[in-house]
Amino acid sequence: MNQDKYKVITYTPDYADETVRMWRESKERALGRKELHSFESHVYFLNHILPETHEVELVLAGGKVAGMMAFNESEISQLYIHVDYQGAGIGGLLLQRAKERSSGSLTLYTFEINENAQRFYEKFGFKVIGRGNDNEENLPDILYEWTSEG
């Protein structure tokens, strides 16, 4: 990844609207359906709820939000890449950062319908450990795990 082209920063509310727009567009494209929550409630979640239990990082490209990840030492809660930057290495950069700061394993969920995400996570060593549909969208999902032991 070209470090001059991309910059990783800790999320600040200054980027709230731009981050949520990117997040919603990426998710809606992956799922083929509109986001359930209002834009305002999504911003509130990003600014007030998610940071209580997760670090939130952004990747900027030319000063614009190109990706975001919310994670802690045991899970990745959110990972979204701007639709114009998917396949550019940003997701891999963020996953590597989460792995380096993990307790030695990470879990995450992705929707079964999102085959691109499944290929992506499996490429980076994540293995399927469960399936279900316990999510707001009531869609089948997949629980993945990565461990430092491989």
In short:
This is GNAT family N-acetyltransferase. The chain is an alpha+beta fold and 150 residues long. It has one domain: Gcn5-related N-acetyltransferase (GNAT) (Aminopeptidase, 3-Layer(aba) Sandwich), CATH 3.40.630.
Please explain how this structure is put together:
One of its GO terms (molecular function) is acyltransferase activity, transferring groups other than amino-acyl groups. InterPro entries: Acyl_CoA_acyltransferase (IPR016181), GNAT_dom (IPR000182), MshD_Acetyltransferase (IPR050276). Residues 6-149 form the N-acetyltransferase domain. Keywords: Transferase. Helices cover 31% and strands 31% of the residues. The protein has 150 residues and is of the alpha+beta class. The chain has one domain: Aminopeptidase (3-Layer(aba) Sandwich). The chain has a 4-stranded antiparallel sheet with strand order 1-2-3-4, with helices on both faces. A 3-stranded antiparallel sheet has the order 5-7-6, with helices on one face. The longest helix is centred in the first third of the chain and has 16 residues, at 16-31. The two termini are 24 Å apart. The model has no long low-confidence stretch (mean pLDDT 94).
